Amino acid sequence: MMGYRYSAINKLHLQFFASGSLKGLLRASLTYTSPALLYSTSSIIGEKPILVRDFIQSALYDPNHGYFSQRSGSVGLLEKSIKFNQLEGRRAYLQYLDDIYKQNEISWFTPVELFKPWYAHGIAEAIMRTANFSVPLKIYEIGGGSGTCAKCIMDYIMLNAPERVYKNMTYTSVEISSSLAKQQLETVGEVRSHLSKFRVECRDATDPSGWGDVDSQPCWVIMLEVLDNLPHDIIYSGNQVSPWLEVWLEKQHDNAHVSEVYKPIQDPLIGRCIEIINLDKDNSTMGSSAVSTAKSIWSKVFPKPRRSWIPTGCLKLLEVLHGALPKMSLIASDFSYLPDVSIPGERAPLVSTKKDGKSSDLKSYLDAKGDSDIFFPTDFWLLERIDHYCSGSVSLWKDKSSKKGKKRRTITLGTDQFMGEFGLPSKTRTKDGYNPLLDDFKNTKFYISVPTHNTK
């Protein structure tokens, strides 16, 4: 589930290419899907209803029909780095992107690939400034793509860290795609000395059994563009004061259509996610009875249904990671905002497909039939709450009077801030000063989280 990346122009420059003639370039990069590969929405659902997250999991990752399973060998790998300082400016850069996509018709490129080695070098520098070198450096990457991030990080550490750090380090990629796992070994193996320190574990990172025994040693976990494709659930409320209900999907009597069914909250993962978000604060007993009565009257006169997409996939992953690697430090990057989302609900996804050479956004997630990418914005405020919750700082919400300190030190930075602090922005700047790495990523952020012993 974690091993896949987005169609680069469609996601990478989503905000930048939102309008005008550039939209054609944005749409041109989506991967074509043969109609023979499609399967109906109703075929995902058996005789029993399923949760929305299970529908999304199947639509994206089903081994035979899922969107990413059909594209697991299509992650782009550039033969050479882009020489940004040889490009005149924005127009020349866009033309260069157009050319490489025409040359690599079935591929998409991640930021770490388009901006190699500088994107990964920024991440490596952030690790080096924070890592405890009194113990061997241990890095995990969830979904390593083509292996470029791993290779470039190991290159940087080999050239810039003390010799013993590189000599004793290990780098593990947790990758669900067997074809990408093979590609990663080939990419990293371009530097022979890296191979003795690198390994790929072909498995699902959200499966706790794959992690084995708890590893209490300090380590780093890297997740680049992973959160946006993690399954989500939907919760629904009929008005402003009614309790939240979880959404299930079931076949209608004709077995050709699927409908949503609303049930009281019973799924443990959804329940924990709601507790973390504190979405039911409006239904709490806190506050005056007059206010509660006013809200109740208002909701009856002007009822307004509520829908919210909740990141249960993210919660599940972080629960597993914190359980397996309690002293991990985390670096994650993803979209903080997606424009032009027509699907209803807070934190709703974009669902994008391409047929007959033309791309379009679907108006319903239920229209995803193996030919559609489903990707979500990341609520970084909520990501931080989930991170603290999974680290064991439950008292932050359950007992506000507790003086127990947080177990994590966290910070969220815009991509331009992160790269300005840890990267080398001059390396991705064109002749006229335009810098796509800093200028085009206004809707993306980095999240850094490190453990602390401040528990008093």
- Based on helices, strands and strand pairing, what is the structural class? alpha/beta
CATH architecture of the domain at 53-232 and 311-342 and 375-397 and 405-451: 3-Layer(aba) Sandwich
Write down the overall mean pLDDT: 82
CATH homologous superfamily (4th level) name of the domain at 53-232 and 311-342 and 375-397 and 405-451? Vaccinia Virus protein VP39
Tell me the number of strands.
15
CATH-defined topology of the domain at 53-232 and 311-342 and 375-397 and 405-451 = Rossmann fold
Q: Give the CA-based shape.
A: globular
- Percent of residues in beta strands: 15-25%
Q: What's the tally of helices?
A: 17
Largest sheet: 7 strands, mixed
Strands of the largest sheet, in order across it? 4-3-2-5-10-15-14
User: Could you tell me how far the N terminus lies from the C terminus, measured between alpha carbons in angstroms?
Assistant: 38 Å
The portion of residues assigned to helices is 25-40%
What radius of gyration results from the CA coordinates? 23 Å
CATH class of the domain at 53-232 and 311-342 and 375-397 and 405-451: Alpha Beta
Low-confidence stretches at least 5 residues in length (pLDDT < 50)? 1-38, 282-287
Structure description:
The protein is of the alpha/beta class. The chain has a domain at 53-232 and 311-342 and 375-397 and 405-451: 3-Layer(aba) Sandwich (Rossmann fold). Helix content is 33%, strand content 19%. The protein has 17 helices and 15 strands. It has helices at residues 8-12, 22-28, 41-44, 52-61, 90-103, 111-114, 118-130, 148-160, 163-168, 178-188, 268-277, 289-301, 312-324, 380-391, 395-398, 415-422, 436-439, and strands at residues 50-51, 138-142, 170-175, 198-202, 219-224, 233-237, 245-251, 258-264, 306-310, 328-335, 350-355, 358-361, 372-375, 408-414, 444-451. The strands form 3 sheets. The protein has a 7-stranded mixed β-sheet, sandwiched between helices. Strands 1, 6, 7, 8 and 9 form a 5-stranded antiparallel β-sheet that branches. Strand 3 (170-175), helix 10 (178-188) and strand 4 (198-202) form a beta-alpha-beta unit. Helix 7 packs across helix 8 (148-160). The two termini are 38 Å apart. Mean pLDDT is 82; it is low at 1-38 and 282-287. Its EC number is 2.1.1.320. Keywords: Methyltransferase, Mitochondrion, Transferase. It comes from Aquilegia coerulea (Rocky mountain columbine). Arginine methyltransferase involved in the assembly or stability of mitochondrial NADH:ubiquinone oxidoreductase complex (complex I). GO terms for molecular function: protein-arginine omega-N symmetric methyltransferase activity.
